[in-house]
Amino acid sequence: MPTRLALLSLFLLLSTTIFAQESINIFKDQAPNFVIEGVALNAQVGSKVTLQRVDRLKVIHNFSETTIQADGTFRIEGFVPEKAICRLRYKNTEQGYVLLIIDKGSHFKLRIDQHQDDSQCYELEGNAENIQLKEWYDSTNNSQFGHQAAIHYADTVTNAFIGYIATTNVPLNSDYIHIHLKQQERLHQQAPNNAITQAFDKRMQAHKGIQDTQIGMIAPSIVGVNPQGDTISLESYRGKHVLFNVWASWCRPCRRENPNHVTLYQKYKEQGFEFFSISLDQTQERWEKAIQEDSLMWKGHICDFQRWKSNYVDTYGVKSIPYTLLLDPEGKIIARNLRDKKLAIKLAEVFEEKSTSPTKN
């Protein structure tokens, strides 16, 4: 089935409104610095063509407008203070627009068809950047273009603005954070002061916990109070392998995984294996009841009773639970989100290697 990954995800991310909005043109007194010459097939004479800018506040501003002439032509011009991602809307339907990159000095030709309710059905000439963007859109309509192809493109494209659009198809999680970091670097190299770069920086800052918990990094410091009222810290577990675990009494997958955790703890605790468990519960009663019911006998339990508003969630970039990190004795992250048999296999490898390592004098 043909896909429209780029268009759909971009505007799910950047816009809450699809149809026409009140025109806002704060640069209306500026001399035009771009021109689009167009031809509209099957168009009603006098119908509007509107150019909308997608800005960093996720609001779409109408900033230039024209009408289609009797011969089907139109000319739209305006002023942009910097390179921008824009939508040229030619039809008041969900897909009745063309996504364009417009910069100071842009001058190109566009051919659209008002009978086509598909934002990828257009022709363009005279602008290499937008031609490249169109070529990518055409590739997304190929039935063989899937999730991995979208991720590969976002990882390898060199144009920062096309990369920005492509990256909206890539989940912002621990598996793909490197792609978003690469895109952030592209934007800072090619458009360091652009509103798009500022918007991307803001989004990345909101997901800093994911960046700080990559394999090979030292797990962020964390302190909390256990059910006995003692203040404990993750750093106090240095010298041991630790499974950092985020769970909750109301999380069924977490509760199903707990017997496996208990088994592994009993198997390896004498070899220096510990748990540091953070609960996203809202009441102490439910938290402690679940600990007792599931026989989670280790002392490393903390909870701030804020559920998903917990600072622990932000610090570690937790998006779903159960969430786990396996830490080595130095506090370095060596594995993440291992469950059931995968966790058992990894621990067997860790402690087999530990038992066969020569003792340091």
How would you characterize this protein structure?
This protein has 361 residues and is an alpha+beta fold. The chain has helices spanning 5-14, 128-140, 147-156, 160-167, 177-190, 195-206, 208-211, 252-268, 284-293, 311-316, 340-356, and strands spanning 34-41, 48-54, 60-67, 73-78, 84-89, 97-102, 107-113, 122-125, 223-225, 231-233, 241-247, 273-279, 301-303, 323-327, 333-336. The strands form four sheets. The protein has a five-stranded mixed beta sheet with strand order 13-12-11-14-15, covered by helices on one side. Helix 3 (147-156) runs antiparallel to helix 4 (160-167) and helix 5 (177-190) runs antiparallel to helix 6 (195-206).
Question: Which characteristics define this entry?
Answer:
alpha+beta, 4-stranded mixed sheet, single chain, Glutaredoxin, 11 helices, 34% helix, 5-stranded mixed sheet, 2 domains, 361 residues
**CATH class membership of the largest domain:** Mainly Beta
How much is the average pLDDT? 86
- Biggest sheet descriptor: 5 strands, mixed
Shape: elongated
Low-confidence stretches: 1-24
Helix-strand category: alpha+beta
C-alpha end-to-end distance: 64 Å
Strand order of the largest sheet: 13-12-11-14-15
Domain count, please report it.
2
What is the element string, with H for helices and E for strands? HEEEEEEEEHHHHHHEEEHEHEHEEH
Number of strands: 15
Strand content: 15-25%
